[in-house]
Amino acid sequence: MTTASRTLDSPATTVTGRRLGPATLALRQGRLELRQFLRSRESVVFTMAFPVVLLLIFASVFRDEIGGGVRFTQYFVTGMIASGLVAVGFQNLAIQIPGERDRGILKRLRGTPMPQWVYFAGKVIMVGVIALAETALLLGTATLFFDLQLPTTAAKWFTFGWVSLLGITACTLLGIAFSSLAQTGRGASATATPVALILQFISGVFIVFTQLPSWMQQVAALFPLKWMCQGLRSVFLPSSFAAQEPAGSFELGRVALVLSIWCVLGLVLCLTTFRWTTRRDG
User: Fold this and answer.
1) Are strands 65-67 and 70-71 parallel, antiparallel or unpaired?
2) CA nearest 189: which of 278, 102, 106, 280?
3) What is its membrane topology (predicted)?
4) Residue 70 CB partners (closer than 8 Å, separation 6+)
5) pLDDT for the residue numbered 40
6) Which residues on neighbouring strands pair with residue 205, listed in sequence order?
């Protein structure tokens, strides 16, 4: 039995007629979404293994300092964590949801007794669990093989938490909204992947941000990935490195503001653009 059919057979009540609570419904749906994700080898490899492979390659090739006593690995891992959150939240959902819509899964879900919000709750739980695993995998790899210096203060770990939370929230909402652009499930990857790759190149993931052309920096500043990377740099890089940022500081207040705005914008786009059926179904 497929995960889709399992989902369709999961109404809001049990066989005894007892109505399930919201938390139970969400957790059940989240468990089903995780099973579906883990059964797809392509999704697991591309979403979780690919960022780790890139980290291993770049950190092995570029071992020099980029200035201020900061090694490239210490800088690069911040971009890879942010990029991993984009892959898990934005790219994964922007590809997965159109496939489910194209196969008629969403249309059938809409006709079941299960509340519609449960579907989205399941996606959020799946994204949250995978994001935690992805981040832990990247940090563990960088620490074991490349001597990554982890944060040593509670304040930096707190910053790491809220930047990651706002970032993954924005990416998840934008991934759900972006899923409505793909005409078919097959075209979803070709629609979402180039967007993610372009943002990585212009947001300081693969290249030190201040080495990019100024016009490229200004374009990147319009999108959340740049601010996610900048917020994470404040966690993993020394305070002295803030002087090498474009504004001469990590601008954590602006990081929080921009990411919050994208969260609100993503929610509005989800509410106004999400489609349960394909265009050919009306």
Assistant:
1) antiparallel
2) 102
3) Multi-pass membrane protein
4) 237, 238, 241
5) 81
6) none
Q: Which residue has the tokens 């990416």?
A: 171
Residue 236 has pLDDT above 90, yes or no: yes
Question: For position 66, what pLDDT does the model report?
Answer: 78
Q: Is residue 129 scored above 80 in pLDDT?
A: yes
Residue that has been written with the tokens 């468990």 in this structure: 31
Q: Give the CA dihedral 37, 120, 274, 39, nearest 10 degrees.
A: 10
Check residue 20 and give its pLDDT: 67
Residue 71 is classified by DSSP as E
Q: Are 25 and 115 in contact (CB under 8 A)?
A: yes
Instruction: State how far the Cα of 31 lies from the Cα of 126, in Å rounded to an integer.
Output: 7
Place of tokens 């016009």: 215
Q: Residue 202: which of 95, 96, 93, 86 has the closest Cα?
A: 86
Grouping H, G, I as helix, E, B as strand and the rest as coil, residue 176 is helix
Nearest Cα to Cα of residue 111 among 7, 193, 207? 7
Q: What is the pLDDT of residue 16?
A: 46
Taking alpha carbons only, the member of 212, 187, 184 closest to residue 198 is 212
Q: Which residue has the tokens 């943002």?
A: 199
The per-residue pLDDT for range 74-120, each reduced to its tens digit, is: 889 999 999 999 999 999 999 999 999 988 888 888 888 888 899 99
H-type alpha helices, 103-149: 105-110, 116-146
Q: In the chain, what are the domain boundaries? A: 21-281
Per DSSP, what are the bridge partners of residue 19?
13
C-alpha pair distances (Å), 49 with each of 14, 53, 59: 38, 6, 15
Q: Over the Cα atoms of the chain, what is R_g?
A: 20
